[in-house]
Amino acid sequence: MMIIHTAGFLKTKDSIYNIGSDEVYLKFVCEVFHPAVRYDKGYWKEFLVAINKLLQNDGYEIYPAEKISNRDVYGWRIYQQEDNTLFIPYSQRNAKDIKSKKDSIVHKAESERSNLSISGAI
Fold it and tell me: Which of 26, 27, 75, 115 could pair with 65 in a Cys bridge, judged by C-beta atoms 3.0 to 4.6 Å apart?
């Protein structure tokens, strides 16, 4: 069965259903993946990934919102693309600045040492 959602209508091979807003459609999609109706041995996870890719183009995503009997129950939310999914430690992200500060501290210490030795303090 092919399902197409356009302008608030859900179209299958044989029928067209008026489902209204995006919110109603998203709730419907979440119910399709509810543990009470999904076939866990089937391809539902692949369908979820494919539908999520399509929904993300429109700014939404389906995500595990809660659990029932240790099985995910899905909800929907506004999709926010993460710019940086890889954590990079502060010291690596700012290595250039840290090195330049260390260099300036080393130069300052060497300068003070030479000033002290010139004045005879060392």
Answer: 75
